[in-house]
Automatic annotation (TrEMBL):
Belongs to the chromate ion transporter (CHR) (TC 2.A.51) family. It comes from the Bacteria. Keywords: Cell membrane, Membrane, Transmembrane, Transmembrane helix. One of its GO terms (cellular component) is plasma membrane. Its main location: membrane. GO terms for molecular function: chromate transmembrane transporter activity. This is Chromate transporter, chromate ion transporter (CHR) family.
Amino acid sequence: MPPPEPVEPPAPIGFWQAFAYWLKLGFISFGGPAGQIALMHQELVERRRWISEKRFLHALNYCMLLPGPEAQQLATYIGWLMHRTWGGIAAGVLFVLPSLFILVGLSWAYMAYGQVPAVAGLLYGVKPAVTAIVLFAAWRIGSRVLKNAWLWAIAVAAFVAIFALRLPFPLIVLAAGAIGYFGSRFAPAYFAAGGGHGSAASSAGPALIDDHTPTPQHALFGWGRFARVLAVFFLLWLGALGALTALYGWHGALTQMAWFFTKAALLTFGGAYAVLPYVFQGAVDHYQWLSATQMIDGLALGETTPGPLIMVVSFVGFVGGWGQALFGPEAPFAAGAAAAAVVTFFTFLPSFLFILLGGPFIESTHGNLKFTAPLTAITAAVVGVIVNLAVFFAYHVLWPAGLSGPFEIASAVIGVLAALALFRFKAGVIPVVLASALTGMAWQLLH
């Protein structure tokens, strides 16, 4: 017999109580956005009852429409709703900070010891696993979104555009958004939002922020507040970019990283996998901050650490700063850590702006959000882009010396086994990566 439903809302939660929870969440938020959102739902809606199911989903629907990591933005939104601006900043920063420190440490170990046979063996096994994971991500998103021939056509066109025509990712996003916009007007049934995170279920009992709890005063929309928030964030961004320009010049590596990852942050519709091709185009091909092999290794590290997957950009920054010896040959770690911090700051700053700027407007209406058709079309295009990323990874993993070089049979076997574990047996990402890494190490040491 289920326990009786609570009839009273929980006691009010202080800022530091919430701070402790957001800090804990930063260390345990594994599993990608779906796992992170499920974790917050279980804890904040069902167990602690800080926010009701309906208000949680309303906030999530808004975050799903934004570029950037939706789980981190959702934590920021709930923190802001509960404890004003500083509550939102604390929730959002703590969601990311543990991952930054862990990734800086792993990036250092990678750069300092990556050539040690045992470590090289681990990385050898990880690469094909990451290829399988990226392919699995395309399948997972595609199965949720590609509900009709129109959306399939967008996905195929996006793949051709980036794979064969080498069109830039931002152009593909804009084109898909435009198709979705016009499609919603002339064929709305084909562009209804596919998938999502479900609808409101039975109530877990009265919550601190319940279905009919009035919007708190600080969350009410006002043009004065809107202008102030916009001005503060613009000054923060411009001040940080200006300081880097003054110190290192516009063409300095740190300044270019700041500018590039600002643009990347505005293009992360559909999650980290969607923007990774853009990061590849810029960081690997254009700026050459790191190699394609290093990028694959970085994605593996990002998959096995807590926090949003887009934190892989911190690895990109670290390797770029280390490799370019920004502070001289005697201080590679300091250069890498500084670059990782710069990249993380400029990648996540827009996420805070979207929540603190748009949150009051979203709180003014608890109805369904409009304009989901462009997002649906963009997400369909993202499927094609991610398949291109999987092809790119597979090429570099299976033919590391190019098509004229030898075919890596062991990598192919590990990749097939990883794909089988993900697709057939629904294994988690972290166990697949760890098992593949150990298999790769054993093969390399015995071979």
